[in-house]
Amino acid sequence: MNNALLNHRAEVSKLAEIITNRQTQNKPMYAIDVNRWGISEPFSDCENSTIYRDSIFELANDTFIDEDEEINEPHYVNAPYESIQNRL
Length: 88
Description:
Blueprint: H1 3-15, E1 17-19, E2 29-35, E3 38-40, E4 49-53, H2 56-63, H3 67-71, H4 84-87
Antiparallel strand pairs: 1-2, 2-3, 2-4
Helix pairs in contact: 1-2
């Protein structure tokens, strides 16, 4: 397991809260907000998406973005490989 994932799990552990509401069908679940910049406390901004999972482990895995995979996206201008800009 890499350090980035461990660091992400630690951050999720700090920010996640146990929520019980209609969206979780009144079952206690861990919640966290996600947006294009990362994660934050649940319900911290109305433009964020709040996701719910049964455990911190699931929440961390489902919100983790591997930087190596992200840099290979074709729309990243500064990506060293697989960048549309590098093919032009």
